């Protein structure tokens, strides 16, 4: 049995991961800013007799995270894996981006995972055992147009995790990245907005959104994505990079081997934005 901490578990992929881990006999502790989602998940786990400690909490609440950590360690005495699933999307032409909102995205997507990892590293280091798993994205290595801020957040997340590996492996703590291309949820649809009339980017953004929403229809569903994430959490020594689907594996492989000009052409054609 593992004690697994999960952030962003009220809905979608995070919820599915929590349900699967709990059903397999693991103890699940976690939080989400969505209080209703947390409450309904807690009730569902309680009905199934699963051991869980859930709370409504914003990942930007530093004192709240430390209080949550203390509660988890009091209850379970240890944590085996921390899965950072929290994240928000951000979409729009860079020239028109609201930088205050962009800062909020970076705070949640980069500093949020840093805060939850940092909170539990000392206990893991003392036990000389543990895993830190971060849900990144295809755009953490392949930047997409109109997703400059979101791409920046995922590039930063991956850089942080890769750096942490050198610091933490001597203490028995392994790290892993989960890299989906797309998952068939409302994640992208919630942020897809056209620029205003008169914007020089409006037509290309319209084509990008249409193509992206078409691709989402054939993307893996949250349950399938969750099964693959659970496999990473269950692994005693998880791989560092873990693409979740065929599309992400293909694009990441092409990104490693093809010349940039060819990669750019593929991306522009794939997203219909030439």
Structure description:
The protein is α/β, with parallel strands linked by helices and 274 residues long. It has a single domain, classed as Rossmann fold (3-Layer(aba) Sandwich), CATH 3.40.50.720. Helix content is 51%, strand content 13%. The protein has a seven-stranded parallel sheet with strand order 3-2-1-4-5-6-7, sandwiched between helices. Helix 3 (62-76) packs parallel to helix 4 and helix 4 (99-127) packs parallel to helix 5. The longest helix is centred in the middle third of the chain and has 29 residues, at 99-127. It is globular, with a radius of gyration of 19 Å. The termini are far apart.
User: What is the CATH topology assignment?
Assistant: Rossmann fold
Structural class: alpha/beta
What is the count of β-strands?
7
> Regions with pLDDT < 50 over 5+ consecutive residues?
none
Reading off the top of the CATH hierarchy, the class is best stated as: Alpha Beta
The number of domains is 1
Helical content class: 40-55%
Spatial shape: globular
Taking all residues together, what is the mean pLDDT?
A: 93
Beta-strand content bin: 5-15%
Element order: H for helix, E for strand:
EHEHEHEHEHEHHEHH
Q: Terminal Cα separation, in Å?
A: 51 Å
Biggest sheet layout: 7 strands, parallel
């Amino acid at each position: 049995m593992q004690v697994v901490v999960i952030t962003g578990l009220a809905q979608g992929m995070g919820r599915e991961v929590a349900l699967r881990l709990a059903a397999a006999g693991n103890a699940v502790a976690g939080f989400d800013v969505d209080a209703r989602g947390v409450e309904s998940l807690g009730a569902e786990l309680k009905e199934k007799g699963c051991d869980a400690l859930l709370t409504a909490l914003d990942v930007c609440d530093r004192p709240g995270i430390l209080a949550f950590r203390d509660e988890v360690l009091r209850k379970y005495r240890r944590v085996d894996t921390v899965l950072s699933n929290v994240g928000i999307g951000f979409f729009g032409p860079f020239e028109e981006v609201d930088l205050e909102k962009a800062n909020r995205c970076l705070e949640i997507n980069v500093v949020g995972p840093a805060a939850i990892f940092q909170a539990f590293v000392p206990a893991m280091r003392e036990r000389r055992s543990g895993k830190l798993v971060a849900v990144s994205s295809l755009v953490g290595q392949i930047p997409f147009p109109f997703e400059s801020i979101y791409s920046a957040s995922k590039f930063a997340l991956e850089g942080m995790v890769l750096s942490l590996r050198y610091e933490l492996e001597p203490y028995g703590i392994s790290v892993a990245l989960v890299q989906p291309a797309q998952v068939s949820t409302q994640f992208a649809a919630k942020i897809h907005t056209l620029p205003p009339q008169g914007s020089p980017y409006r037509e290309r953004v319209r084509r990008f959104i249409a193509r992206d929403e078409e691709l989402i229809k054939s993307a893996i569903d949250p349950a399938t994505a969750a099964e693959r994430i659970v496999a990473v959490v269950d692994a005693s020594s998880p791989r560092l990079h873990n693409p979740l689907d065929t599309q992400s594996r293909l694009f990441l492989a092409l990104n490693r081997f093809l010349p940039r000009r060819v990669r750019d052409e593929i991306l522009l054609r794939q997203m219909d934005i030439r």
